[in-house]
Design goal:
Elements: H1 3-8, H2 14-23, H3 27-36, E1 39-40, E2 55-56, E3 62-67, H4 76-88, E4 93-96, H5 103-113, E5 118-120, H6 123-132, H7 142-154, E6 159-162, H8 168-176, H9 186-198, H10 203-206, H11 208-218, E7 221-224, H12 239-257, E8 262-266, H13 275-285, E9 291-294, H14 306-320, E10 324-326, H15 339-359, H16 363-377, H17 381-387, H18 392-400, H19 416-423
Parallel strand pairs: 3-4, 3-10, 4-5, 5-6, 6-7, 7-8, 8-9, 9-10
Antiparallel strand pairs: 1-2
Helix pairs in contact: 2-3, 4-5, 4-15, 7-11, 8-12, 13-14, 14-15, 16-17
Length: 424
């Protein structure tokens, strides 16, 4: 049985108990939300996830970190280090998005090492296989679509991005679209290219029942990928984007009928004033399914600092109901992220998630804020460092310019907290 099916039968899994303890909620709330499909617990039956997560309504906002190789930069050791750093700084999940090297070995290595859920995008493998055999990127068969899904399932992948909403009807919108950037989703563009070249429907959509069968067998959470997401704020919230969303909304219901866990992926580039509308609409069309957003980025002009733009958009999106934030690193749109980029990206998105949790009144988040306030009052630096999302980053800065007495070198003897303690 899948986690959803167990929840519907009133059964409590070990993973449900673990996430309930982490969230500080009654396990019955976990069971109820999973049964309704308003939350998901990604956990492949063959992957031993030590730190499972629950994503959805009523729970803390989660953060995902993408890692993976690219042409010219393919090192399993570097990817292992990226995974380690991402988890150390608070990533709730990883996605392995490699497009070079021995993809299966990389994927299996990360899954075997990861204590958190691991996601992937199977369609990448098909494109890479074609390219490496001197064919066009879209030269693969319908069978390849599903062979890759099965391979990823066998490797223990817990959730998969499947660009199932890129249908022929949706693709027609491109011809009349006024978008500057027609398609920016890598997986979406691969599938669109295949459909155009072969004059066929998207196999993931046409044979969605077969996809559900695979997902159900391994209890893989399907993340319905937004192949038509806007890649620039000037292209946001258009017909092309929403046409795909309506398709995905229908497929959410089909997945739930089969007991398959499902969530919706959302737009990556959205002006700040349109974030609330986008999140609200996704929740409505998706019948309350969890929302997984890349960013979102409310400006396209933060190159080199896109993680900051991402944190701004992510905090607002989380406040309005987004459940799962996919981080963006300082290298976004520029280069393959290195280990330091991964660290910065995770910290930025964790800040956004925590800001959203506090604004949403999450009890655990507020308890931690109170502990931080008390630690600051008592000049308890070790507790402050431990509670800090930056951890050793904060400690390093404190020790770089130390102050011999209470307080820090910012204010020295004129510390407001110390003065208030002595005279107020």
């Amino acid at each position: 049985m899948t986690q959803m099916e167990m929840a519907r039968k009133g059964l409590i899994s070990e993973e449900m108990r673990k996430v309930a303890a982490y969230e500080g909620v009654d396990v019955e709330l976990v069971r109820q939300k999973l049964a309704e499909g308003r939350a998901v617990l990604p956990k492949n039956k063959i992957h031993k996830v030590e730190r499972p997560m629950i994503v959805g309504e009523g729970f803390s906002v989660k953060v995902n970190a993408n890692i993976g190789t690219s042409q010219g930069f393919s090192s399993i050791e570097e990817e292992k280090e990226k995974a380690k750093v991402a988890i150390e700084y608070g990533a709730d999940s990883l996605m392995v998005l490699s497009t070079w090297g021995d993809l299966r070995e990389i994927r299996r290595t990360i899954v075997s090492l990861s204590p958190v859920p691991v996601g992937s995008v199977p369609i990448y493998d098909s494109a890479v296989k074609s390219y490496q055999t001197k064919k066009n990127v879209v030269d693969f068969s319908e069978k390849d679509f599903f062979d890759m899904v099965v391979a990823h399932a066998e490797d223990g992948i817990d959730f998969m991005t499947i660009h199932v909403g890129v249908t022929r009807r949706v693709l027609e919108r491109i011809k009349s679209s006024k978008r500057i950037l027609k398609i920016v989703s890598r997986g979406g563009s691969i599938i669109a290219g295949w459909m155009i070249k072969n004059n066929r429907e998207n196999p993931f959509y046409q044979y969605f029942d077969e996809l559900l069968s695979i997902a159900k067998e391994y209890d893989i959470t399907l993340s319905l990928g937004d192949g038509m997401r806007p890649g620039a704020v000037v292209d946001a919230s258009d017909t092309q984007q929403f046409e795909e969303l309506f398709v995905m909304g229908e497929l959410v219901e089909k997945a739930r009928e089969e007991g398959v866990q499902v969530m919706l992926e959302g737009p990556g580039h959205v002006p700040l004033n349109e974030i609330e509308m986008n999140v609200t609409l996704m929740k409505k069309i998706g019948k309350g399914a969890p929302i997984f957003l890349l960013g979102p980025l409310p400006t396209d002009r933060a190159m080199g600092y896109d993680h900051i733009a991402c944190a701004i958009g992510g905090a607002l999106a989380g406040y309005y109901g987004a459940d799962f934030l996919c981080y963006v690193t300082p290298a976004e749109h520029i280069s393959l992220p290195d280990v330091e980029d991964v660290r910065e990206g995770v910290i930025a998105s964790k800040i956004a998630a925590v800001v959203a949790d506090v604004a949403r009144g999450n009890k655990k988040a507020w308890d931690l804020e109170e502990k931080m306030a008390l630690a600051r009052k008592d000049f308890d630096w070790e507790t402050m460092f431990e509670l800090s999302l930056g951890k050793n980053v904060a400690k390093e800065k404190h020790e770089k310019r130390p102050y011999p007495d209470k307080g820090c070198s910012m204010c020295g003897p004129f510390c407001a907290i110390k003065i208030a303690e002595e005279f107020a």
